[in-house]
Design a protein that fits this description.
Helices cover about 15% and strands about 35% of the residues. The chain has four helices and 16 strands. It has a seven-stranded antiparallel beta sheet. Strands 11-10-9-8-12-13-16 form a seven-stranded mixed beta sheet. The longest helix is centred in the C-terminal third of the chain and has 13 residues.
Length: about 240
Amino acid sequence: MLPVYATNKILKNTKVYKNIFIMTVSGNYDIIPGQFFMVRSWGIELLLSRPLSVFDAGCGYVSFLYEIRGRGTKILSGMKAGDSISMLGPLGNGFDLSNIKGRAAMVAGGIGLTPMLYTAKKMVGCEVDLYAGFREDVYIVDKFKEYVDNIYLATDSGKAGHKGFITDIFDPKKYSVVLCCGPWTMMEKVIKKCIKCDVLIFISMERRMACGVGACLGCTCKTKNGNKRVCKDGPVFNGRDVIIG
């Protein structure tokens, strides 16, 4: 059976930084933190939908933090409140909160913050620190203040926090579990640090994908347990299971 897209109304679509937007859409969904939706607002102009991780959700709404990276996200950025959008989801496995206990660290690079806010809101009973790295300016981290205990920043430019990489100041020995999302080079470093310190590590993978439901195999990644589909078997994986260079 082909997946069925739902039509939802856009409530807000706000620019928060240069090419970064938050789109809030109407709808009530039972969402596991770390899940995503396939989103489209075009007919045959573009063939594929775009996968967007859930940034936040609540009674009557779900929101997405996204970056303009091509034609699809450029079209999304031009949409306004009241416009209709097609959505399929929630999809993927998400973070298994039963395995996330004690003192936790979230390590994110830039737009990798996307799956972290809703996850932080659901990590009740955990002590959570956020490590966020950016190239130039800091954005969106203020929204985390209510849900995390400490925020550590790093920027390549030196405009805020540590001048350099966020991995420079992240020490996994302080934590019982680490959640990570961002550029693959950054995640590789975090995985290696966590394995060295014997700390549990979960990563949220990002891949281009066509269907979002495991049919096209376009988002396959290599793991120690064979090839896996990021959309269906992920996007959250145990960091120890993925093959890194």
